[in-house]
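Hi R.,

Here are the chain sequences for the assembly we discussed:
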Amino acid sequence: MGESIKSHVRAHTVGTTAVVYAADYLNKLTGERIERECRKQLDSGCRALVIDFSDTELVNSIGISILLGIIDIAEKSGAVVVFSDVNNETVQLFEMLGLTRHVSLARNEQEAISHLSTQPALGH
Amino acid sequence: MKRNRQEETRRILGQVKREEFVGRTAELERVLAHASRADDTRGLLILLAPLAGVSELLRQTYDALFKKQGAAVPIYFALPAAETTPVSAAIEFLNTFLLQYVAFRRNEPALCSASLTLNDIVDVAPSADVEWIEKLVESYNEHRFGSDDRDFVRFCLSAPHRVPAGNPKPFLMFEAVHLAAYGSAQVPFDRELLRALASYQFPFALAGLRRQIVYAVECAGGTMDRFDSLHLELLKDDDARALVSSTARRHGVPINQETTDLLVQQFEGSPFFITAMLQAAGEKCVSLESYLSCERLYVDELLGGRLHRYFSAVMERIAPQPEIRRAIVRLLCEAIPQGSRTIVFETWRKRLGVSSESVEDILQKLHTEELVNWDGEIVDTERGPAPWRDYLRSRFRLDALREPRALVVAEVMASALKRAPVTITTHLRRLGHLRLREVFESFNSQLVPSVLFDYEHFSEIYRGAPPEEVATGLASDTTALRLPQVFHAASGVSFSTELRQFGEENSVIAHGFEGATYSDQNEVVWLAARVESKLEAEVELTERWLDLLEDVTRKSGFMRTQFWLISNEGFSPDAIALLKDRGAFGSSQQQFELLAERLRREASPAAGTPDEVELVLPMGSDYELIAANTVEQIARRLNFRPEAINQIKTAIVEASINAAEHSLSPDRKIYQRFRVESDKLVITVASRGIVPSNLNGYNRQSTSDTDTATDQRRGWGLKLIRTLMDEVEFERVDEGTRLRMTKFVRNGS
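And here is the predicted structure of the full complex:
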């Protein structure tokens, strides 16, 4: 869980898709870092966001509410959001709070990128 | 071996064997423990309810300490009832002190009951004690012929100070039940006694009537805080029954279960009355196997035996002059039948025809004996035990009205016989009433299945079901009703005399707050009544009760109420419809018992002590992760499945975040408790601080789509907790909040 205290968020881009890695504990602090990174990527012209949860063991409701904010921002920018590698417990939480109505889930990063390549980007 | 056994069981001052001394075991242990506190000089005040009896407790303590031959030398002195001068009492004290000290030092119990002069005591004192005792006696002889009584009393009471430093210290047990009789303008004995005791450099016990002792401490300029205290009340029912059985056996009195209960209830658990009756029965070879034989003996004792002597002695202490005593009896008797239980001071002064000071003295003594309540002006006469009221009435008829004795005896006995079955019925009803009141007093915002208050629904589901099925059904019942937090519960009769027609014990009115939130909107009054019906209660009876409760509500000005009727066999269909129409709850006795059992279990969860872990974390800085890791370890021990463990972890993270939102928390700490029971994990998360406004309606499940974004976010946390855990209760406590979450271990969960 030491990852969560790092001040930088791991991210890279594949074409116009940005892949952002969530920390092991998604809370207010780490959520806001992801949000900042996503904004940066969208401002840089990315049209799709993959948030990868492969390291994430625990999320809290504040972290989830920030994810919802990221989805809003992405929608306004005409970008698509995909969550990848989310563990079962976290999927359950996302379902409970209705997040899965707004994003697609992919088993891993590769599947997410493949999925996005078949989706047309949303226009304004 | 035989000799040792005799040593163990021998009595010195005790009037009964140790094994026959029932009902005061805890108190005996307490006094013995106090005696062993050699390094603590605090005194123990034994505050006695009238007729609760203390002599045997102190005598048993004496015997135990004497047999132990330890560091504390027991000294027991009872202020005599007959010797009413401070000087004579002081002399008696000095003699008793020296005699018992020497008896202990020589380990000769027989000396305690010997009649020895002070010079005789010097003669029998062990060589190690001769010098200081001889000096003390010489000094006594010098003081004895002085003219200052107060100085002489002080000298005698200070005798324990003369024990040399290297000697075993005395443990003085001073029984001062008759302290009120020692009023003297020249020597205020109570003050001298308190002063002497306060100066002792060893522990002591002072026993007396509670009102007298508190008054004496105040008069001596002290405060109760300086002493330890032990309250001696009348015996509880079980202890009183044990005393009746034991005393009857000792005196060879045949008795049965019914008459045992009658004696216990009629004498309200007074060891004095019970013992007096059984001693009398033993002496007169009377069997107490019927109400008739009990009441016949009672009237004999009341009009000419032990009870008569006791009350006569009390009256003589209160008013030595016969004409004043008669006037008091007349005043008390004439006040009672008029329905007016209070008499003002001025009436007392006029009717007794004595000075204000004398009336004050009389009232103070009556008040001390708890035969009246006197607040300085109004005298409430409805006090004292039932035998006292019988004594008063019989004296009034014999002495004031000059009625023939045979007539009075016959009528008092008839009255006692008529009262006997009523006494027992009242007792049985009171048991039921106490349970109803006790159940109300345990209402503390718990969530309980609402079906327990809905007879129709309950009987649809559970009629004829075996107890296990009912228990299982209730355990999985999710339709919950949150009880109020009750802060006051009393008989309905205390609010309305109209309820008396149904029996004093059949209604309870309970004041409380919903959600433990102390506001006008949350204040609620529950009015509950037991409807007496052998079958399902019919609509007429139900309506009568509801009308009555509504009438009480109107007259008492209750704003928000909840009616709850309990009938042994529930309610007829028409009665159920009426209950629904009037918004009242209706339960059968079975539902009531299930509720009581559930509340009792919650108050003292599980037999055996569950494992419990406590964790105090600072707010903020991801400390909730420590809580999550801790609970993970605990949950694993309970064999929760990994999915359930994750749910618990998320719930505790959310609960911790909630607690941290109390920005005005003074200590910025979160208190977490993890209680492991065989089938569940109970987690309590608490913090001090201000309750966030968005949590107010949490227990009503108020999270809605229309909440503001911020509220919605916090609503998510609470929603998650509720979804992830099996039971969730959010409570306001005095300063802060408490969230209790339960997760059950389920196979396959």
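The two ends of chain B are 64 Å apart (CA to CA). Chain B touches chain A at residues 622, 624-625, 628, 643, 646-647, 649-650, 653-654, 657, 712-714, 716-717, 719-720, 723 (CB under 8 Å).

Let me know if anything looks off.

Best,
T.
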